[in-house]
Amino acid sequence: MSRFVVSAVVAASLFLACPAQAQQSVVRRSFVTQYLERVIWTPQERGPLLVIAPDSMIRVLNGAHSPDLSKLSREGGINVLELATEMERRLARTTSLSALVLEKMIVLNSKLGKPDLSQLPSSDALMALAASLDERQWQLLCGTNGLGLRDLSAQQQPLFSRTLPQGLLVGNFGAPNATPVPPSALAQSRVQLSRSLQFWFAYQDEKLNGSFGGSFSGTVQGNDTRPKLSKDFRVRAQSSANYGVTLSEVLPNRLKPSQLDYKSTSFDKRIALEGAKTIEELLGRVTQATGFEIRADKRIAELALWLRNTPEQSARAGDLLELLALSVTGAFRKLEAPGQKSLWLLTDDIEGLATRQARQERWRAEAEKLASEMRRGYRERFKATKLEHFVSTDNSYGLSPELIKSVQGVQAGGQIKTTVVPLSALPKNISDQLETILKQQIKSQEEGHSQSSINGVINPPLDPSRIKLSQNQLGLSVIVPGYGVYQDQSSASSLGNELQNASRDQTTRPPTPEPVRPEIRTRIAIFAPKTPAEARQALTAAATARLSAVWIATDGGTLETLKAALEEGKKVGIPVGAAVALARLPENAPADLDIFGASGPYRIPDAPETAAALLPYLRTLAALPGLAGLALTETGAPGYLSTALSRFGNSRDSLEYGYTPARRLSFVRTEGYDPIDLGSFSDVGFLTNPMRNNRMMFRSPTDTPQPPTPPNPWESWNRVRFEANKALMSQVYSALKEVTSALPLWLKSRSQGFAQSDWFGSWDKADALPTFVLVFPTIPVADEERLDPYNPLPQARRTSRQILFTQAPSERFEGDKTPLSTWWSWMLTSGTSGQRNQKTFPWDGAVLDLSALPVEKAIATLQEIKL
Fold first, then answer.
1. Residue 304 to residue 189: CA distance in whole angstroms
2. Residue 340 main-chain phi, psi, to 5 deg
3. Where are the alpha helices (DSSP H) in 580-712?
4. Which label site among 176, 291, 357, 472 has the fewest CB atoms less than 10 Å from its CB?
């Protein structure tokens, strides 16, 4: 199995770089350094000693805890090997230099096998187990004593074992007296399924009490006196497996394959060590001495170092580079581009971190697709057995049967039932606790500290005499005989969802009436005919449908089909425009690359060949006699469309582009990062946790005041690509306006991620690019003008005088069986910001995009939709 490694030192340094922990980190560094200074090491005899990131010499793989170094202190100094062991490091040597390097490293696997659906995660294992139970076993599972291993068949027992949580503790997690539950006791566990009760604040305004809301602060103790177990969330297996496939694991640190030869005679030069403070400084000295451009990822480059050496001592360049790579569990990656000098980058691994994340995300998506099919099978089993009625409500609060019944089941529409209850209707021990909590919350509210809000109304007054009650989702109680009970709410939530879905499937619901369509002034359809004959067919159908106009999709080849459409349009009285997927043209320009280095359908926007062939083609197109407009449907490849940080592309379903060797090389030199190492904001294994929330862009803490926060690397990477696309768009605009200023130009909306809605906006100025923004940059506008991420209309109006709503039937959700006519009506309703039966359509028109369909099917779709 091919493995790729993520730097544990980088992760630790990023974790320490969080602003909230900066002061603590400074203290820790000083604490560790005083012990390093007392290490018994004579550089005159043993050569220089190097330690990378001395401030992060903590147990990085087992939580952020400082080791006890005081026991190492003795007269005469500290033994270097004992210090290394305590710090979870080891001593590594070369002929000219030694270093204390990490013992362990985290491995991310990017060559993944097929998912093994028999190796289920705990939530799926519980669903599979529940689906396999007979009526007697369901009664046990939902009964007082629960279900145990001996109540199950040999085939069911492995599923039961996989439902049990690991790392259970007697006592509270973090308490000094907390002790682990032994595996032998956990194996004797019994599990119980039930629904718990949830308390919510009630409001004086009765209109606000219609649904569960009103966050509840405080804990109410019921009558369950069993000892409560907790979970040690630091307990992690040595490997992270998902559906039987290892995604990450902890392994002994070793020197990884590198694209730089440490033994080469080119790196025999001696490098002075005296005075170096960071990895970046050392690599600068290597570059100067050898003539090879050698850099480090910015997260690594800024790591501090500690040296024990004499002023005149030096190290062989190759030895130094080797120990630097081993110290950060990294490798040197070679970046090269035609006509440019090569660069070697010390980074996490030869393959990019973001690339490996993307591979794992693709694998997860495929595994989840298979798992969804399996869950549908469970749902069918639940529908057939109808055993959910055995699930009871956990009434450890001692409430009356009438109260319990009032919150059982769901309301119409699947909403959880709630009921407002006077405190006097509850047992006294419960009402006393609730009254105390309510008084504290009301006092906090009066002082302006309440966090309670609902429907945009901040801090509505609470009712001091009532509480709102609801029933929670399913919960799983793990009962360990002789130790206590652990309440596992997360594992049972998926089972609860499937049971609820099965119940909904059996409920006959009246069909939702089709909304009344608003009146649309301009109605346009896009066709993609392959021949002149098909073009004439499309125009005939458009005339029958009495459309306002037709746009013909043009692929950059011959214009004969478009000319035939123009001729037919004159005959039937339908204006004809052209629709061009701009980012895919011209076909003879260099193809852009995705994060895997694979070429896609898009062209490199700033390649000289692109503009050289694209602009003459567009001028020819714009000069066609009778052309009624030009619509550009894809104005940039994913990744080029916006500088906004709402980007899911490089590790989600849709890939981003722009990862050409030249662009990557330039970005390393200007920003300090290889873009293939800029992963998503999501997690892949616990090692990437410190890289969330933009933390990677903070510098490591030092004893001196911090410099200004450097630019966000994701935003910088987006901006580099956006500017390349923007420059091409400016050239396109000028070229088209040179031909004729009267030709209507349209741009399809651009979105760096998932878009709530699409539209075509008139292209009125070169830099006015219609963009759907999900996470907004700072926009200096009045509060009443702020953009609503769920309403594209204000965004569309910002850049264009005319805006046309658009949807494509080919992009309907998979499995959507709604009749096309109904689907289109609902899409138009979404175009009115969800206001049903609104007579006035707020857009200036609508475009039905049929370009993904063969013409014959497109015509049939048009007829069914009745545009």
1. 49
2. -125, 155
3. 608-622, 661-671
4. 176
CA distance 140 to 225: 21
329-350: pLDDT as tens digits: 999 999 999 999 999 999 989 9
Distance between CA atoms of residues 281 and 271, nearest Å: 11
Among 693, 600, 677, 690, CA closest to 645: 693
Q: Are 164 and 192 in contact (CB under 8 A)?
A: no
Residue 794 preceded by cis peptide, ω within 30: no
What sign does the dihedral 138-142-145-147 (CA atoms) show? positive
Distance of CA 783 to the CA centre of its chain: 29
Query: What is the C-alpha separation between 63 and 173, in angstroms, rounded?
Result: 13
Q: How far is CA 59 from CA 177, 249, 738, in A?
A: 21, 17, 66
Integer Cα distance of 473 and 471 in angstroms: 7
Alpha-carbon span 461 to 453, nearest angstrom: 10
The number of CA neighbours under 13 Å toward the Cβ of 663 is 26
Contact 672, 339 (CB under 8 A): no
Which DSSP category does 684 fall into? S
Tokens of 407: 């919150």
pLDDT averaged per 10 residues in sequence order, the chain, 867 residues: 41 31 34 79 95 66 50 78 85 96 85 83 88 93 92 94 90 85 94 86 77 61 85 62 80 94 97 96 98 94 92 97 94 96 95 89 87 87 81 84 78 65 90 88 75 51 85 86 89 81 64 79 96 97 97 92 97 98 95 95 97 97 97 94 58 74 97 88 32 30 48 86 96 96 95 68 94 54 48 85 94 79 86 56 94 96 93
751 DSSP β-pair partners: 772
Alpha helices in 262-409 (DSSP H): 279-290, 298-301, 317-327, 353-385, 401-406
What is the C-alpha separation between 733 and 618, in angstroms, rounded?
10
Q: Are 27 and 55 in contact (CB under 8 A)?
A: no
Q: Please, what is the end-to-end C-alpha distance for the chain in angstroms? A: 55
In a 13 Å sphere around the CA of 406, the CA atoms on its Cβ side amount to 12
Q: Provide the token pair at 35.
A: 């012990």
Cα dihedral sign for 459, 460, 462, 467?
Answer: negative
Q: Are 290 and 317 spatial neighbours (Cβ–Cβ below 8 Å)? A: yes
Cα diameter, the chain: 103
Give me the pLDDT at residue 700, please: 38
With a CB cutoff of 8 Å and minimum separation 6, the contacts of 537 are: 529, 855, 856, 859
| Tokens 């400016």 belong to residue | 730
**Residue 254, phi then psi, degrees to nearest 5:** -145, 160
Q: Please provide the DSSP assignment of 781-827 as one string.
A: --GGGPPPTT-HHHHHHHH-SSEEEEE-GGGSPTT--S-HHHHHHHH
Q: Is the dihedral of CA 771, 776, 780, 782 positive or negative?
A: positive
**pLDDT, tens digit, 9 for 90 and up, residues 446-475:** 776 655 444 444 567 888 888 888 877 788
Residues with Cβ within 8 Å of residue 815, at least 6 apart in sequence: none
If DSSP codes are grouped into helix, strand and coil, which group holds residue 626?
coil
Query: How many CB atoms are located within 10 Å of the residue 563 CB?
Result: 18
For 431-469, the three-class secondary structure string (H helix, E strand, C coil) is HHHHHHHHHHHHHHHHCCCCCCEECCEECCCEEEEEEEE
